Amino acid sequence: MTRSYQLTSRSSFKLTMSLAGLLLAAVSSTGCGDGMLGWDWGGDETARVQQAQAINGRYRPPADVAEAGREQAGNITYDDADQCIGTGNPILPGADRLASFLRDNFDGASRYDHTVYCRSVRGGSSLSMHATGRAIDLYIPTIGERADNTAGDPVANYLIRNATQLGVQYFIWDKTQFNTSRGYTEDYCKNRCWEHGGGKHPHHDHLHIELTKYAANHLDYSDIPPVDGSSGGYSIDTPDAPQTLSPANNKSVWTDDVTLSAEQVSGAYRYAFDIERYDGSGWESYYTYETDSASKRFWPASKAAYRWRVRVTTAGGTSEYSDWSTFWFGISTGSDSGPDSGGSTDTDSTDTGSTDTSSTDTDTAPTSNAPTGAWPTGGEQVTTSSVTLQVDQVSGAYDYEFDVQAYAGGLWVDYYTYDPDVSSKEFWPYYSDVAYRWRARARTASGWTDYTDWNVFLYGNATHPNAPAQPTSNAPTGLSPANNQRVWTDSVTVSCDDVGGASRYEFEVQYHDGQVWREYYTYEPSSASKKFWPYIEDNAYRVRARAYTSSGWTDYSGWNVFLYGNASTP
């Protein structure tokens, strides 16, 4: 059942469930001539548009559509563009839903833009509606250099008929503009479009659609009337997790780079590739890439076992992650000090709230075949200028790897990885009076052996750090807003304490859709704070943070939930 009610909260305008705008900026050369239509508009909609394939002139609505527009005059007050929500951010959710509906229900609509672009209007100084996330450009391929009115006019007619219910405050199509507050169409070009020497785009290849603030934030699929005029709303399912991953599970990769790919998911505009690396004792977070395509090329930092999974975002929401797929980078399958062949199974429990409840991964390492006889070890004090790391020779080994870390600032940090062809390596530690630790492995025709355990030695006058082999969490502290804090300002600044040596930070933000947490956006500023403008009003959000230092990403902090506006605690 289609809801039809007037929206009066938060502004003085009247409308019935609005939708965040569809706005697309296309650039292509065409005329912007003005001329009367030369045919009879009688008959049904199909008959009318069949006569309108490419028109010399501009879009003019049929009489019944024009009357529907006049009847809605004054129903909606135009909401000006007030602030940019950030280039690259997704358009507002209501706008995205309307755009998806139009693309899926009108044959001529080819695509629409999903992201915000902060700029002024073309040829002017005022802020473009594209900067607010309330505008979308819905593309209609041209016929030659003319508008395809067979494809575009039905969309424009639909928008006029349903402007109040959709929250469409304004649109432009084929040199014609419609403002719902006025209730009638008028010439958009006049002396402003290209053929008149002006800078305006005639919008012959796309509809520019703007939504009210409320509609852009709150329009739901159930509020969108069907194209055929019947009762009921439009709905779209949350996408399924991608399948057919490559590299396939338990494959070795011998190239310098790896391209992760999954099947294309219809309507997907964001893919998130989550990667973990096996450190010899368990899986650790490596990196999460977000792209607009179903593949991602990257260069792994070290030879190791990696596993990855992917999820997608469409207008229907964000899918679950795919199953884990494990690959061995630069080593033979199963030979790393990593998971067994069953390592692709994910045992993480479902996230049920603001606290991470993931269980410990149950993948187990195979029986160790690591080199023996490691020296120096056990906190040995080394006072010579150089240090020789050594292990017993491994039969058939033609390559060894010595992974060295230094103890600094209360943490073990990567120092250097040596790759000799013999079972010993002499080096000159750069840092004086510091504790070091190292481990080694060997490569044979069967691949890499396991790593040895970590071996600590004390260089110069260093004292033993008495630190665990794997330090406790190094996640940022002091996360703000505080957990369950209510925020009344238009903008929110998320921040954490500075992390020594950090070159950038990552703030992952999610919003609650009433049932589950969904991805909102991940910001990567160079400082320990980020200001943003939440576009879903009166909603619960949560944020966590991590920092990037010379030794890689820290752990994530815990989640902090904040309540934006009149949001309820989820």
UniProtKB/TrEMBL annotation:
Record field: compositional bias (Polar residues)? 241-250
The ARB-07466-like C-terminal domain is annotated at: 114-181
Residue ranges, annotated region (Disordered)? 230-250, 336-384
Give the InterPro entries listed for this entry. Answer: ARB_07466-like_C (IPR058593), Ig-like_fold (IPR013783), Zn_M74/Hedgehog-like (IPR009045)
Instruction: Please state the span of the N-terminal signal peptide per the UniProt entry.
Output: 1-25
Origin superkingdom? Bacteria
Q: Does the keyword Signal apply?
A: yes
Biased composition regions of type Low complexity, renumbered to the chain: 336-368
Q: Does the keyword Transferase apply?
A: no
Q: Spell out the SUPFAM superfamilies in the cross-references.
A: Hedgehog/DD-peptidase
- Give UniProt keywords alphabetically: Signal
Query: What is the designated name of this protein?
Result: ARB-07466-like C-terminal domain-containing protein
Q: Which organism is it from?
A: Persicimonas caeni
